[in-house]
Structure formats: C-alpha cells, structure tokens
Amino acid sequence: MELKRVVVTGLGTVNPLGNSVADFWENLKNGVSGGALITKFDAQNFKTKFACEVKNFDPGDYLDRKEARKHDLYTQYAFAAATQAMDDSGLVLEQVNRDRAGVIWGAGIGGIQTFYEEVAAFNLENPKTSPFFIPKMIANIAGGLISIKYGFRGPNFTTVTACASASHAIIEAFNMIRLGKTEVMITGGSEAAINEPGVAGFNSMRALSTRNDDPVTASRPFDKDRDGFVMGEGSGALILEEYEHALRRGAKIYAEVIGGGMSADAYHMTAPDPDGAGAVLVMKWALEDAGLSLAEVDYINVHGTSTPLGDIAETKAIGKLFGDHAYNLSISATKSMTGHLLGAAGAVEGIASILALRDGIIPPTINHFNDDPEIDNQLDFTFNVAKKRDIKVAISNTFGFGGHNATIAFKKF
Q1: Are 319 and 313 in contact (CB under 8 A)?
Q2: CB proximity list for 75: less than 8 A, separation 6 or greater
Q3: Where are the alpha helices (DSSP H) in 8-54?
Q4: 71, 303, 368, 404: the active-site residue
Q5: pLDDT of residue 1
Q6: Exactly one of 71, 163, 168, 368 is catalytic; which is it?
Q7: Which domains does the chain show, CATH number per domain?
Q8: What percent of the chain has pLDDT over 70?
Q9: Is the separation of the CB atoms in 69 and 1 below 8 Å?
Q10: Closest-CA residue to 234 (of 108, 320, 360, 63)
Q11: Planar angle of CA 285, 180, 282, nearest 5 degrees
Q12: pTM for the complete prediction?
C-alpha cells in the first residue's frame, strides 16, 4: 500500500505568548517570558504563586456568549485555535468531503475548572448539579464540538496521555491521512488547569517551580538552578491535509509531516527513566517512520520542562541516539517562555517547530544563567538568544506522566 503524503495547511493558537500564531511567533523569537503572578485566583497560600497564563482572551471572539457559558475554558481555547487554523487554511467547507474529514484532539486533564466548581458546590442533602457538568468536564468534548461546528463526520476521538496528549493526537491524525482513511484533519490540543486544584496538586508532587521572587525567570530548562516546571495553559491547532488534496486547491503549505514515534518508559508513575531509554526509543522510531538518517535532523524542540530529572534524562537520550551528530543539532526548550501547557504542549511546540522550518529561525531557550555539570553543555541549546539557521528537518519531543512519549518529525516544504 502506498502511503499518502501529509502537509500542514493551517495553524492556530492561544497561549501565554499571544492569542494568534503571529503574536506567538514574534514573542517566541524575541525570547519573551509568559511568566507572571497568578491572576485567576488568590494564590497567596500556595507554594507556587505564578504561572504562564493566557492574557486578554475573549471567548466571544469565537463563540456566541450564551454558547460560551456552556463550555469549560479548555474547550473555549480549543474552539479559538481550531477556528484560527481553519480560517488560515482557506478550506471551503462546501468543497470538503466531510465524510473524509475528522478531528483528533488532545487533552491531558479536560474540564478541571468545571469539575472543581461543581464538586465544591455539591450538597448531598440536595444532590443536584448543572446539566452541563458532565459535558463541560469530559476530556473528549472539545474534539466532539469542533467536529459539530464544521460537520466533519470522519474519525473523531481524543488522546489522553498527560503532557504527550497533543503530540499523540497529531500523530494519529497524520496516520489517518497517510493510510488513505481521510483527506483533512483538525488536530492539536488544549488545556486550562491554572486553578486551585491544578496548582495544589502539582505543588504536592513537588513538580512546580516555587521561585516566587521572579516569575519571569522561573522556567529555566537545563540551568543548574532549575527547580520544576511553570504551569501554562492554552491551545494549538493544526490542519493536516493529504498532499494532492492541498495541491488541487492551491493551498498554502507550511511544512510536511513525515513521521511519528510513540514509546513508553515503563519505569515510574511520574519520573522519567534516568537513562532516557524511552526517549531514545521514541526519537529512533520517529526517524525510522520518516525514513530519515540521524544526520538529516537539524533541530529538536525538546520536552525540556525545567525539572531536575527530566532535563538530564532527555539530554542523555539525545547524546545516546545521535552520537557525534548531537553537536550539530540546534536545540531549544520553548517551555522556558510558554511554560508547560500540559496536554496542549505538543501542539504549540509543533507549531513552533513548523515556523522554525519556515523562517529558518531557532527560537531560544531563555533563562539560562548557570551551566549544570550533569548536562552536556557542549550541545547547542540556543541559550537566551534566537539564531538563524536554514533547517530542513525538525523533530518535536513530548513526554508525559505515566511514561508516555511521542515524537513528531516535520520537513521543510
């Protein structure tokens, strides 16, 4: 069976660096931090008092205001990104075979704000909830509602693999098209977990940075003094399209998706394999799936969360897999600017990888102050300042609690 080629024809995002792809990319290139004190709730009694929040978001730009109230914030973010991406793609719905168009979405948690509000208000003596409680909360609802909006009747499901959710969604959408099952897919992910239980839960795990004196510099991947990730929120959406289908309608093409890898650490509930075994495997399989040699990879948008163990394990994996070529790679951890968008991370970082290919610009890893002796600092982490480089192939890594790993390979078009 001959596999179909798959291209990216539309992008959309709402994230801590901007509520459009253009704003996001401009701030990412310029090394802007999305970190600031939390405004969504009073965090005075929390160990972590800061996050990377989405700013100035108005769901009314994408939804009727009455309709918006029926949806959790993570779904509102999903609608925003998907709407932007569809508009960007130039697809004319009347010309799309909607039986062969689908939606695969990622969410690590889903409607945690809705869950929190409903449970907090629940009274056993009068056990009633909002009729929208369940449909607002469930993690699959964003993808279902996007399909309803556009009438896409093809494959529709949600991947829930913690922080790898959006990348798994993109890989599954890619596979649907290249196997000839669909022609158009809306894919990506969204998350909105900056609230009391979200922050408290990650604080209890000691996963979050507690550097309250300077939120702007708290996310510092690969730095010796990193102390945990900074929570982010938002969404990213990609329109994937079968190449010939895109060509026939004269579509703008951002990049080609050429491979995807999936693996498990099979090691620990939350900690990464310290030797990076699962990370080695997922990158290896992504490159094999894409038919690429190690030497053909130019850029890695790493998972790079700014956690003490995770950054070391991923760096070890890159060295083990790529050998001497590791020193020819450009690497950046864009979570240093966006924070960690959890289930949406893979989509937003995939967009960053695609734009790096398009424009020949490697976004920086900001907030690097001190080298960590446990990390190979001969690698090119693009510390603090973006740089120009003509890159042909980029891979994007995302790893999630439970040991879930996903890597996507993109090629310049």
Answers
A1: no
A2: 111, 136, 141, 142, 145, 190
A3: 21-29
A4: 303
A5: 77
A6: 163
A7: 7-255 (3.40.47.10), 261-412 (3.40.47.10)
A8: 100
A9: no
A10: 108
A11: 10
A12: 0.97
